[in-house]
Structures are given as C-alpha cells and as structure tokens.
Design goal:
By secondary structure, the chain is of the alpha+beta class. It has 13 helices and four strands. A hairpin with a 4-residue loop joins strand 2 and strand 3.
C-alpha cells in the first residue's frame, strides 16, 4: 500500500502542475513583469477561462509598452480579439504609425481592422506609396484616330477614409474615365502623342480620389499606341449604308416602272381588243345601212377609195429598209 502511494503521489503532483501551468501561464507572467507590463496571474487565468490567447495579448502589450503606446490596455485588446479582430496587426500598425508620425488612434485602428481592411498594410502604404498599373484604356480623338493608353497611378493610403472608402477598382475606373475624356476632347491624336502629360494634368484636376481610401499622388502615362482609324471606318460604313439605301430605292422605282409598264400593256391589249370588236361590227352596220337605205353604192366606193388612199400614204411614210449585205 505504501509503495502504491509513493507511485501515485508523483503522478498526482505532475497532473496538478500540468493543470496549474495550463490555466496559469506562470512563465508568461514572468516575461510580462520583466518587460514592464503590469498584469496579474488572476487576469491570465481568467483569459484562459474566456478562451482568449494570453500569449497573444501579453505579446501585444509588451510591444505597445516598448513603443510607448500608453493608450493600449489589456481590456481593449481582449475586446478587439473577441470581436474577431487581429490584435497583432493592430498593434503593429499603431507602432509603425507612431514611428512615421502618422496620426492613428487605437479606436480608428480597430475600426479599420474590423472593417476587413489590413490596417498594417494601410500604414505601410501611407509611408511607401503604391504604384497601380491601369489596364489598356481605348479612346478616340476628334480626328477619328483611336489611341490605346496605359497609365501608372501612384497612390497613398488615406487612413481617415479607409472605413467606408472606395477601393482600387474605383480609382482605376475613374482614372480610365478621365483618360477617355481627355483624349476624346483633343482635336487631334498628334496633340496627345506630342504632349501625353496633358492627360495626366487634366485627370489630376478632376479630384478622382474623392470618397476613396487612397490619395492620388501622380498619374503617369506609361505608353500610348495608335489603334484603328475609327473616323474613316465610320465614314465607310455610312457610305455603304447610303449606297444600300440608294440601291433599295432604285430597285423600288424599277419595280414600280415595271408594274406601270405591265399595267399599260394590259390597257393597250384591252383597247386593241375593243377596236377589233368594233371593227367586227362595221360590216354588220354597213349591211344594216344598205338594207335600211342609209348607205348607197357610191358612198361605199368613196369609203373604199379613202381606205386605199390611207393605206398608200402609210406605205409611203414607212422608211425603206436597206438589204443586209453580209
């Protein structure tokens, strides 16, 4: 029995020590005290109970204390962690901003972090501006020549507008719109090629960074290429369209003329049929006139002479056809 107690007692002591050092990070407390951070073992124990990583909080407090950030305290760090924030990045951003003389409070840093933006990267971008390459922007000058421009936009993060401010896509869209407007207002594409900086100056005057999370420092035209002659293409298309319209109208007039000709031929045939029908009634009328005594023999011969005279005159009036000597 005594031997069993001698074996069980060390095991129990070991279990108690493991549980104690798990819930009470004693060595972490010593590290904090040595670094000048005031925190008690009870607070570290309660962090374990609240499932807050004590090592992360203590490390952030040590970093803030060494950087002289007096506004950072344990309760705020725990609250930010429990809200889903990144404590380490917030403290890194505060230290970097303090070293770079950038005004950034703990409340603003946590708001930026909880908004889903990388606050540490934003501070770095405020110190070291970022260069954004725009995609090729196509525009047409007033002379109809198409130009394809590429620009490089140098931006710096605007800390005060990171929460609720527009991102890079909005800046690129506004810069592209400004380039299109600048090229479109140029009288000739040669002016743009000779003075590409005129695009940058005009675009910068429009205040494209308004309402965005960035401050535009410069817009530089990296490359301009000549595209198609859009004006000539449009004129050719217009001429082709006018030609097709004219052909359609001519075809319509031709169809109307053919229809009118067919109608006239039908009327002529109808008239000839009526003449033939009338001529067929002449002998009947003459016979009736003979029977009734309204037409005499002499009258009949005079009429035949007139017909013969008319036939002769028509024959004389016709041109003489020359024989074909082949």
């Amino acid at each position: 029995m005594v031997e069993f107690l001698f074996i069980l007692l060390p095991v129990l002591i070991l279990i108690v020590l493991v549980v104690f050092f798990y819930y009470v990070p004693f060595f972490l407390w010593i590290s904090a005290r040595v670094s000048g951070v005031s925190i008690s073992l009870i607070q570290l124990f309660l962090m374990r109970i609240r499932k807050v990583p004590a090592q992360t909080i203590v490390r952030a407090m040590i970093e803030a204390h060494k950087a002289g950030l007096s506004e950072v305290n344990r309760d705020d760090l725990e609250a930010h962690y429990l809200a889903g924030g990144n404590v380490e990045k917030v403290v890194h951003a505060l230290v970097s901003a303090a070293k770079a003389n950038i005004e950034l409070t703990f409340k603003m840093a946590t708001a930026i972090d909880l908004a889903g933006r990388d606050v540490f990267q934003a501070v770095q971008m405020s110190v070291n501006p970022k260069v954004i390459d725009t995609p090729p922007v196509t525009a047409v000058a007033k002379d109809g020549i198409q130009l394809i421009a590429k620009a490089r936009v140098t931006v710096r993060a605007n800390i005060r507008q990171l929460v609720g401010g527009a991102g890079e896509d909005t800046v690129l869209a506004r810069v592209g719109e400004g380039i299109v407007s600048s090229i479109g207002s140029s009288e000739s594409h040669k002016q743009v090629l000779e003075n590409p900086d005129s695009i940058s100056k005009l675009v910068l005057k429009k205040g494209l960074d308004s309402g965005t999370a960035f401050e535009i420092l410069s817009i530089d035209i990296a490359d301009i290429d000549i595209g198609k002659n859009i004006g000539a293409t449009l004129q050719i298309d217009q001429a082709q369209a006018d030609k097709n319209i004219a052909q359609a109208k001519a075809e319509e007039r031709r169809a109307m003329a053919i229809a009118l000709e067919q109608e006239n031929k039908a009327k002529a045939q109808e008239a000839r049929a009526r003449v033939i029908e009338a001529e067929a009634e002449v002998p009947k009328a003459m016979a009736e006139a003979f029977r009734n005594g309204n037409l005499g023999i002499m009258d009949y011969y005079r009429m035949k002479n007139m017909e013969a005279d008319t036939t002769m005159r028509e024959a004389i009036a016709k041109p003489i056809q020359q024989p074909d000597n082949k």
